[in-house]
Design a protein that fits this description.
Elements (H helix, E strand, L loop, with lengths): L1 H25 L6 H9 L8 H12 L7 H6 L6 H18 L9 H8 L9 E7 L5 E9 L9 H10 L4 E7 L9 H17 L3 E7 L4 E3 L12
Length: 230
């Protein structure tokens, strides 16, 4: 019984690069859900081939809620913590990267849920949130990543994506790993430079939000942006 199982696995392993090659050639929109799971898992085990495991995982995902995915996957025979967490992590990453698309932004509170995971980082991340005419999010771009207390921001990088996306406005945002959301003198100076650049390119800055693990600071709410930029 062992040899046929081993033989089937060898045949399947030889076929795995075909899925990777198709994904590389046509993009990740090409594979079906089961094949995406196969790419995440990489391999099966002696209890189950990766193809069978992926098919069963898709069946679980089709009926599971986001808060019980790991629990449901761990109940599957042959799926350990590593594979269950890999699938759940991929789902969470996908949600974080796409849940903001089209969200309507009226106040800082509307944006915070989509950027607050950056507050946990030990390095400063400077973000440019591009908006359309209805103030819906087009995309959240990481403009630069700095050290624990500063990051270098180039106006060209801030407005480059906004111009390519035909954005009508942007919101600036960065985290303070120090744990205090109040702006530094450098933060204020950087904002002033970007405000001048925004007038040249015709894309207004609606706000600059600083986040930490517990709170945020809005330049707009504290009257640090010109009225015509709001």
């Amino acid at each position: 019984m062992y040899k046929p199982l081993f033989f089937r696995n060898i045949i399947y392993v030889n076929n795995k690069p075909d899925i990777r090659e198709k994904a590389l050639k046509y993009g990740l929109g090409y594979p079906v859900d089961q094949e995406l799971i196969m790419l995440i898992l990489g391999s099966g085990n002696r209890q189950m081939s990766v193809k069978t495991m992926s098919r069963r995982i898709v069946e679980v995902l089709d009926t599971a809620n986001s808060n019980d995915v790991v629990e449901r996957l761990l109940k599957m025979k042959g799926v350990g913590q590593g594979k269950a967490l890999a699938i759940a992590a991929a789902l969470e990453l996908g949600k974080r990267r796409t849940c903001h698309l089209g969200a309507h932004i009226v106040s800082p509170d509307d944006l915070i849920p989509f950027v607050n995971h950056y507050a946990m980082s030990e390095k400063e991340h400077f973000l440019a949130v591009t908006l359309n005419g209805g103030h819906n999010i087009i995309q959240i771009h990481v403009v630069s990543v700095g050290t624990t207390n500063r990051t270098v921001v180039n106006p060209r990088e801030v407005f480059g994506e906004a111009i390519r996306e035909n954005a009508t406005a942007i919101i600036l945002c960065h985290n303070h790993p120090s744990g205090r959301a109040e702006p530094s003198e450098e933060d204020i100076a950087t904002t002033d430079i970007l405000l001048k650049a925004s007038k040249l390119v015709g894309i207004p800055i609606l706000d600059h939000i600083i986040i930490d693990c517990n709170s945020y600071y809005s330049f707009m709410e504290h009257g640090l942006l010109p009225v015509d930029e709001q």
